[in-house]
Amino acid sequence: MAKFTFIDLFAGIGGFHLGLEANGGKNLCFSEIDKNAIAYYCKNHDLPVENNLGDITKIQELPEHDLLTAGVPCQSWSIAGRNLGFDDDRGQLWNDTIYLLNKFRPKACHPYNVILKYL
User: Fold this and answer.
1) Distance of alpha carbon 112 from alpha carbon 49, whole angstroms
2) What's the pLDDT at 55?
3) What is the pLDDT of residues 80-98, one digit of tens each?
4) Under CATH, which number does the domain 4-118 receive?
5) 64 CB-near residues (< 8 Å, 6+ apart)
6) Is 74 part of the annotated catalytic residue set?
7) Sign of CA dihedral 62, 36, 47, 17
8) Which of 14, 21, 54, 87 has the most beta carbons within 10 angstroms of its beta carbon?
9) Pairwise CA distance, residues 105 & 89, whole Å
């Protein structure tokens, strides 16, 4: 039996998933928009593509869960991404993450700096 449940936003190929599952977590669903990453996530974790919630900006409902992971894209905050912050569309994805945190109130969230904004 799982010790906790989690949802994986900006899932990539599932790095957070590996660590959480190894420590007793059960993945309920994930959110990713890159087609190749979705295919690898599903293959690596033996999940159907239907478990993908898709674009975070379009998510309206989440199942009850204990932990929300959010590997928000960092390009808008880095030199490689021209350091545009919130002026880059990807920088606005923090707002969508915080919206979901406030709406569904999981017991915990990673990364830590997101927790500080929604408590």
Assistant:
1) 28
2) 94
3) 767 766 666 766 677 788 8
4) 3.40.50.150
5) 5, 104
6) yes
7) negative
8) 14
9) 25
Number of H helices, E strands in the chain: 4, 4
| Core vs surface per residue 6-36: b (16+ CB within 10 A) or e | bbbbbbbbbebbeebeeeebebbbbbbeeee
One-letter identity of residue 8: D
Q: What is this structure's pTM?
A: 0.81
Catalytic residue among 29, 42, 74, 109: 74
Angle between helix 15-22 and helix 35-45 axes, rounded to 10 deg = 20
Rounded Cα gap, residues 103 and 79, in angstroms? 32
The tokens for 8 are 């994986």
